[in-house]
Amino acid sequence: LGSDVPPADIASAVQFFNADLVVLSTTLATQIKSLQASITAIRSASGDSVKILVGGPALAEAPGLWQRLGADGYAGASDAVSAGNDLVGVE
Length: 91
Fold this sequence. Notes:
Layout: H1 7-16, E1 21-25, H2 32-46, E2 51-55, H3 57-60, H4 65-69, E3 73-74, H5 80-88
Parallel strand pairs: 1-2, 2-3
């Protein structure tokens, strides 16, 4: 899904596809509010049944912000697959 997809539509897609993991990335600090809205919408629709992994340059500059946003994990691009596998229990 693209960056212009509204949070409610992301949450609907998560439910439609019965996702186990959602990976969201943000480049600019000005996008943090949209990232928070997406995480909130996903949590409202799916609770804790889906894991949320976040990344991107905006979060790399703010250690610990991913936790305050309600994500389950943070990873850079080179570690995202491994981190996602860990979150959903894939070996």
